[in-house]
Design brief:
With about 90 residues, the chain is of the alpha+beta class. The chain has four helices and three strands. The protein starts with a helix and ends with a strand.
């Protein structure tokens, strides 16, 4: 039991450290919202149309990694406003 407790504490510390940076994951894309979502994905990632379309067509996909909390929340809000489902990890 003592070892398990130590492992639990280590995991808690890692989660707290990770909360300052988030990965933005495009979780679900409704078919009728793809074009609006695609435009935002392209502006966020700087990808070309073909690459961005692949991301939008095959969720879940990580859009950005290690993003500050404030920026991650803004990006999540922008994408959710056009119908995407976003997960911050």
């Amino acid at each position: 039991p003592g070892l398990m407790q130590t492992d639990g504490n280590a995991n808690d510390n890692n989660e707290e450290d990770a909360k300052s940076e988030f990965d933005i994951v495009l979780d679900k894309v409704p078919g009728d919202k793809k074009i609006a979502i695609l435009k935002i994905v392209r502006s966020l990632t700087g990808l070309g149309l073909k690459e961005a379309k692949q991301i939008v067509d095959t969720p879940p996909q990580t859009l950005k990694e290690a993003v500050a909390k404030e920026e991650a929340e803004k990006i999540k809000k922008d994408l959710e406003e056009v119908g995407a489902e976003i997960v911050l990890k």
